[in-house]
Amino acid sequence: MILGAVLAGGLSSRFGSDKALAELNGHTLIALAVDALAGLCEHVVVTGREMAPAPTLPDWPRAGMGPLAGLAAALHHARDEGYEAVLTCGVDAAFLPENLLEALAPAPACLAAQPVIGFWPATAAPELERLLHSDERHSMLHFAELVGARQVQIAAPVPNINTPGDLAALSDRS
Ligand SMILES: Nc1nc2c(ncn2[C@@H]2O[C@H](COP(=O)(O)OP(=O)(O)OP(=O)(O)O)[C@@H](O)[C@H]2O)c(=O)[nH]1
Question: What is 2-173's CATH superfamily?
Answer without folding.
Answer: Spore Coat Polysaccharide Biosynthesis Protein SpsA; Chain A (3.90.550.10)
